[in-house]
């Protein structure tokens, strides 16, 4: 028994050691990026892992990134695109998932499989026909064209998660609402939708992170001189590395990375508990 107890303690210590090491690997790059954004370029290259001189913290790097590199404009574009995409994905996917989960009608299963097929098709495979379709519709170089692409790419995962989640909710709640005089829209909006909050939060987190950090589609669809004012944060970060006049200002580049990272990190930290619950109750039961 003592031997088993020692082995159990050793295994627990080993697991905590592995988790601690993993935590260091994940967290340290963020800390390094934060204090590097407060250093001069020469200090970054001379001692990249050394802490900055606290008597000479380069807060001006953040001002330069926000004003000179136009990160304020890019930040506003990212907030707008992400917020509208999030709203549309949550609204459309919740209504579609509710209908697929609660009602039997001809074509329900093929329609669900049609949504799920979107999870199996990488966006890189569809980018060429999508590009020419956007061009023919006059949507290239516009924010609303990019919004349509983001909403379309976010719907398959959202419908998959929420369909499983709505199926896990008791049907008696819906029946009670209908008996009490609620129509289908009222039953969905006032009864079933609030109960699906963990699933909606799960979709919101993944949709937020995917849209906020997305680069590939934004780079393709916002090409051209006329679309520079619509650039999002990932495109703004790439622009710092591409444009020659900013090539050596690494302090400003790291400041931009910090500003792009903080909203996503804050959103994930605040909603983390809902994420685990939503995945467990929704997708796994679906």
The second-level CATH architecture of the largest domain is Orthogonal Bundle
Largest sheet: none
Radius of gyration: 24 Å
The percent range for helix content is over 70%
Strand content: under 5%
SS elements, strand count:
0
Shape: globular
User: What would you give as the CATH superfamily of the largest domain?
Assistant: MetI-like
The H/E string reads: HHHHHHHHHHHHH
Integer tally of domains: 2
Mean pLDDT, to the nearest integer, reads 84
CATH class of the largest domain: Mainly Alpha
Keywords:
disordered C terminus, globular, 286 residues, 78% helix, MetI-like fold, single chain
Layout of helices and strands:
Elements: H1 2-36, H2 41-46, H3 60-68, H4 71-102, H5 108-120, H6 123-136, H7 143-168, H8 171-179, H9 184-195, H10 197-212, H11 216-221, H12 233-242, H13 250-283
What is this entry, summarized?
The chain is mainly alpha-helical and 286 residues long.
What does it look like?
- The chain is an all-alpha fold.
- It folds into 2 domains: 35 residues; 224 residues, MetI-like (MetI-like fold).
- Helices cover 78% and strands 0% of the residues.
- α1 packs across α13.
- The longest helix has 35 residues.
- The relative contact order is 0.14.
- The C terminus is likely disordered.
């Amino acid at each position: 028994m003592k031997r088993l107890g020692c082995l159990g303690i050793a295994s627990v210590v080993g697991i905590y050691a592995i988790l601690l090491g993993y935590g260091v690997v994940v967290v340290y790059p963020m800390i390094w990026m934060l204090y590097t954004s407060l250093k001069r370029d020469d200090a970054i290259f001379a001692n990249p892992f050394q802490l900055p001189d606290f008597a000479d913290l380069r807060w001006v790097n953040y001002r330069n990134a926000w004003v000179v590199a136009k990160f304020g404009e890019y930040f506003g574009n990212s907030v707008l695109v992400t917020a509208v995409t999030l709203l549309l994905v949550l609204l459309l996917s919740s209504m579609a998932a509710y209908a697929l989960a609660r009602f039997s009608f001809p074509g329900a299963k093929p329609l669900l499989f049609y949504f799920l097929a979107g999870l199996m098709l990488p966006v890189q495979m569809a980018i060429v026909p999508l590009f020419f379709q956007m061009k023919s519709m006059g949507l290239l170089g516009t924010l609303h064209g990019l919004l349509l692409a983001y909403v379309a790419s976010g719907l398959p995962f959202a419908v998959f998660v929420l369909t499983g989640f709505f199926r896990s909710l008791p049907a008696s709640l819906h029946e009670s609402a209908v008996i009490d005089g609620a129509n289908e829209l009222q039953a969905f909006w006032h009864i079933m939708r609030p109960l699906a909050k963990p699933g909606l939060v799960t979709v919101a987190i993944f949709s937020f992170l995917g849209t906020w950090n997305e680069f590939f589609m934004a780079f393709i669809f916002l090409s051209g001189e006329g679309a520079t004012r619509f650039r999002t944060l990932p495109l703004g970060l790439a622009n710092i590395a591409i444009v020659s006049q900013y090539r050596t200002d690494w302090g400003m580049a790291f400041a931009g990375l910090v500003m792009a990272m903080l909203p996503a990190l804050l959103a994930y930290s605040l909603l983390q508990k809902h994420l685990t619950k939503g995945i467990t109750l929704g997708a796994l039961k679906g």
